[in-house]
Amino acid sequence: MRAISQDVVGGPEVLKEIRLPRPAAGLSEILVRVHAAGLNPTDWKHRSIPGLFLGEPPFTLGWDVSGVVESAGPGVTLFKPGDEVFGMLPYPHGAGSHAEYVTGPARAFARKPAALDHVQAGALPLAALTAWQALVDTARLEAGRRVLIHAAAGGVGHLAVQIAKARGAYVIGTASAPKHGFLRSLGADEVIDYRTTDVAEAVRDADVVLDAQGSDHAIHSLRSLRPGGLLVSLLLDGGMAALAEEAARLGVRAQVMLVEADHAGMAAIAELASDGRLRAEIAGTYELADAAKAHALGETGHTTGKLVLTVR
User: Are 249 and 83 in contact (CB under 8 A)?
Assistant: First the structure.
């Protein structure tokens, strides 16, 4: 099978198309013929930064996947060959969806909603699961709560806006001014230009803050919370101890979260997508062989929504 791999860390140019043996589904696994696979910031970070979760290359990146079940391993009861599925491979060590075929635990997947094509479905899993696990599982977001979402037009952010609205929350999103109309179209109640406004001064009564930048930005964002409010940071970095200390000083809470493979979460995302309440904005699609071009665009940080690789 064709796959995108790298032998060294570096820029997008280190990515190359190679041939690998087609994997076989093991116990409780399914083999999926990949139709589309989303990209996420963690992909270009692992490609370019030595010593992250996957260790040293060679490796094949990609955690998002949408495709068709080719075979089911022993013990699998949820799916059979021919079923259309989408899901997130176990993060971080289950990477490998930027290929023609991939295996993963059956319960990392859900049935692909009929209303979504594979590109739409392939864009959702990691980013939507991150938003769901942060807002629903961690923050227990309820109707009427005020939530501040930083980088609200990004991959996780624009899905978090929709999930928060589906929960009945009042949503405040930050983005550059040209993206404000997009965020309002998703249901954001307020939008703030982070380039011209000190968001922590403008918002002081949020019940929940979702922060994807970590470190000093997360610490500064604690000021946006009401007493007892919760900040969920999506980055594991060296500032976690300082974040906890400042949260305690301010009388608020802070948690750092790493996304996990989750069948129940995928089922909830599938339901929202089927109902038309959750949809990924597609910033661009690229053939598998053009993965380097997708990486180069993605790491500019200026895309709105998700980039997706398509596999023919």
Answer: no
